[in-house]
Amino acid sequence: MVEKSNSTGNVQRLFIENIKKQRSKLNLSQIEFAELLSLSASYIAELETGRKFPSITVLQKISDILKIKPFQLFISEADIAVIYSEAFGTEYKRVLLKSIPEVIEKTFNEVLTNTKNE
Question: Residues 48-70: pLDDT tens digits?
């Protein structure tokens, strides 16, 4: 079942893990990834250590380069497998996928607020 958590730290941890895993799957170094994003390697390092959180525009670029949907940056691989499995109910899947942008926006705002306060 999809994890339900209000913990910003958990979401940020998943975000960091997912970026690293997907970047690794594509055999991209931080430098190569940064170049594809037109960002600095130090910015990527800060993303991957939780010191920075990207804008929505950068999130979209990240997901495009990593060849995944933006919401996949915020959930575990196990949950992704469940969402895309045949056993997952079509109606539930439709409702869940419809609500993901709202959850991402709320989480993004929470993380952004926490990052600014540090």
Answer: 999 999 999 999 999 999 999 88
Q: Does pTM surpass 0.70?
A: no
Residue 2 placed within a domain: no
Distances (CA, A) of 56 to 29, 61, 79, 101: 22, 9, 22, 11
pLDDT digits (tens, 9 = 90+) for 86-96: 656 666 666 66
Q: For residue 3, is it within any domain?
A: no
Domain that holds residue 104: 8-117
CATH number at residue 107: 1.10.260.40
